């Protein structure tokens, strides 16, 4: 985060008094910088399930936040990690102050950004990854979303608020016309991606469709009874950021070096994944205790449609849609209004 600069004028007497105080601190065995406000000694990070959170898994295993905090001149922080199944509960944790860095879909972050503009000022630290979400189905009669009926149930992380829920509304508007974005909402059920995958593949559940992310969508498609109905890249008209890291403005302002250390850790993790896809696949399997074959995970990581990058892509399309349907009450002027200043040099959209 860019440091704010302040012009403070002191009288000659005030400067002398400060110098005397510093001298007393040194004489008493305390370093002069002890008077400075320190940054947090504990950093609390949350993530969810799926390949899009791989950079966070790399950061955790390689202790990159700790490394870059030390390099910034900070004492090594204690970093704790928690896993959530959806953006709504993660937002609650961030608001309550029990979390420092949240990670969720663009849509939940935008909802919180709009709600906290005059209070906590939640903003994105960086994008996590740009990758497609698939709507998969086990119903042989469903060739497009127009074929879904009241007999179908669509699993997604959180009804109406998760990024998959918003993308389904965008797809419904495109398929059924203006004002019809909620047409399929009654068919949706909230379910974590791992549970929804198990339900869809079992063939014995009410769940007949799942709007999901890698690796779950590819795992499902290994079963010949499962087919893809649509890709979010089709809905958005191209690649888009799926998930982001975000924090409150208060935290970022009070902890600029820690926030910058997190961003540097993300950039480093992205580079490592690109250079070491096989090792990254093995790391993912360890971190998630996954039974997927390493070769399959590596193919997902190296898929041309998957971009591990901190640069935001097409986030304004989500903002414009959410504003138009009334889910957020204010529309950002551009993507930079949603993100902290350290990313403003990126070629984002």
UniProtKB/TrEMBL annotation:
Superkingdom per UniProt: Bacteria
SUPFAM superfamilies: Periplasmic binding protein-like II (SSF53850)
InterPro entries tied to this protein: TAT_signal
Transferase found in the keyword field: no
PANTHER family reported in the protein's UniProt record: ABC TRANSPORTER SUBSTRATE-BINDING PROTEIN, ALIPHATIC SULFONATES-BINDING PROTEIN-RELATED
Residues spanning the signal sequence: 1-34
Magnesium listed as a keyword: no
Stated name of the protein: Nitrate ABC transporter substrate-binding protein
UniProt keyword list: Signal
Organism name: Skermanella stibiiresistens SB22
Any Pfam family hit: NMT1_2
Transmembrane stretches, start-end: none
């Amino acid at each position: 985060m860019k440091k704010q600069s302040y012009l403070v004028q002191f009288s000659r007497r005030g400067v002398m008094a400060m110098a005397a105080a510093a001298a007393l601190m040194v004489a008493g065995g305390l370093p002069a910088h002890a008077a400075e406000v320190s940054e947090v000694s504990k950093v609390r990070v949350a993530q969810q399930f799926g390949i899009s959170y791989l950079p966070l898994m790399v950061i955790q295993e390689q202790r990159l936040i700790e490394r870059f905090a030390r390099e910034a001149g900070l004492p090594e922080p204690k970093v704790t990690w928690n896993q959530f199944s959806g953006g709504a509960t993660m937002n609650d944790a961030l608001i309550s102050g029990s979390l420092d860095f949240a990670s969720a879909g663009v849509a939940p972050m935008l909802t919180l950004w709009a709600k906290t503009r005059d209070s906590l000022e939640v903003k994105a630290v960086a994008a996590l990854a740009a990758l497609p979400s698939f709507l998969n189905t086990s119903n042989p009669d469903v060739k497009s979303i127009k074929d879904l009926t009241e007999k179908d149930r669509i699993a997604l992380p959180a009804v109406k608020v998760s990024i998959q829920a918003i993308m389904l509304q965008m797809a419904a508007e495109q398929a059924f016309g203006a004002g019809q974005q909620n047409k399929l909402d009654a068919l949706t059920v909230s379910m974590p991606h791992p549970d929804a995958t198990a339900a869809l593949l079992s063939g014995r559940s009410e769940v007949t469709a799942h709007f999901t992310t890698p690796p779950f969508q590819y795992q499902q498609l290994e079963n010949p009874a499962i087919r893809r109905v649509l890709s979010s890249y089709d809905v958005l008209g191209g690649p888009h950021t799926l998930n982001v890291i975000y924090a409150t403005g208060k935290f970022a302002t009070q902890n600029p070096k820690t926030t910058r250390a997190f961003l540097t850790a993300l950039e480093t993790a992205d580079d490592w994944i690109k250079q070491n896809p096989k090792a990254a696949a093995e790391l993912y399997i360890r971190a998630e205790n996954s039974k997927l074959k390493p070769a399959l995970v590596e193919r997902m990581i190296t898929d041309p449609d998957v971009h591990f990058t901190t640069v935001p892509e097409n986030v304004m399309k989500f903002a414009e849609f959410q504003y138009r349907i009334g889910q957020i009450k204010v529309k950002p002027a551009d993507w930079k209004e949603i993100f902290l200043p350290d990313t403003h040099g990126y070629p984002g959209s």
